[in-house]
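Model: Ready when you are.
Researcher: Fold this.
Model:
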Amino acid sequence: MKQTALLFVALLALVGAYFVYTTLRPAEEASAPISALPLQSSATAATSVEESAEAAMAETPQAAVPTAEGEATNEPEAVIYEIDPQSSTVSFTIDEVLNGAPKTVVGTTDQVAGQILLNLSDPSKSEVGVIQVNARTFVTDNNNRNNAIKNRILSTNDYEFLTLTPTRLDGLPAAINNDDSYRFTLTGDLTIRDITRETVWEVTVTPSAQGQLIGTASTTVVYADWNIAIPSVPAVASVEDTVLLQIDFTANPV
């Protein structure tokens, strides 16, 4: 009987040690600096065809054609912007009770990438490409929590990236002016690990006179919808069921 009890205790200790190791061990680092996936759209295809035609014409000598003084030059119909990781941040915010006291946990990373097409002649035709976030680079104020998030919650060794694939933009303005802020909603498929769910984001964006797009996109989700479970630890009495996701971005013309 005594031997059985000792064996049981040893087994529990072994299981506990395995849980601690697999939860708190250092996770794999980012495989490479993040880069944007090219935005594929009819507008970008048309721009490529137009640029090719212009290049071909440039190789052929053309007779000089006089232009009227003050004639307006052709403005681009659409401009592609790319999110700048050095000036952008993705964050998650969740509330918990830690050691008997309320605590707000915030995780952040600058490893976010994506492209935005701004249609200047018809803003309603603007588009947002796939947004990628490297989940291996999230950090909070506690290194053990960082490892637990990467190993047990997001499984970043197997699923390095979170992706948001936009499917619809609603509430885009009829016209755009520099330094004015615009609000709209973005509907998109958010993939965490191997599960994809539709999400709706509130977006505010400001085209600056310096040629940048500066904005914020946010949504609140129920993480259990992605089959995410928070590991139970003695110091944490409870964790909220929802998490706030936010992207603060600056995008530059490509």
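Researcher: Now this one.
Model:
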Amino acid sequence: MRKFSFILGYSILLIASVTKAQTNTVYFLVATVWDCRPCGSYVLPLSKPEDIAQARQLILATPTNGNGKIVGARIAAGKDGINRDYLAPGCPEWSWHVTEFNRFADGSIEILDGSPRLVERDVDWWIRNTGGLIGFWAYGVVRELGPEPICLTLQTNASGLHFTWHGVSTNYVYTLESIDS
């Protein structure tokens, strides 16, 4: 009985620590530092307080001041429900996602340069040829998405207004308002 209690207690502690680690993740949007919506954007999950603080500082600093840094990260194939192109209509989900943040860097080797769309064309090829690393030269952290990114797409047609929501949680209240103008 004592062994069972220990295992049960350890399991609860493990679940609590995993849940705690997941709630400390803050998501950031990585995109080109100039306005280039066709280039694509992707989501960078950060959990370490020092990385989160640096990402927030980079958002405040403009690349023209010499403070722009590219994101060095490791990716894996597969959708994770978070990594999307938040700058594209409908916020399409990528078939790859960031699994590990390495660092903010001044540069990377040329083979790591590219774009989210280039990775999407052939994820397996990218991972095989780069070891699963990315370091897109023209990209940087541009926006904080918070702990639970949400994408809302609105489309109007003859039958009315159509809403598409991604990342909506049941723990919040959302209000949609409309005015005629």
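Researcher: Key takeaway?
Model: The first strand starts at residue 26 and ends at 32.
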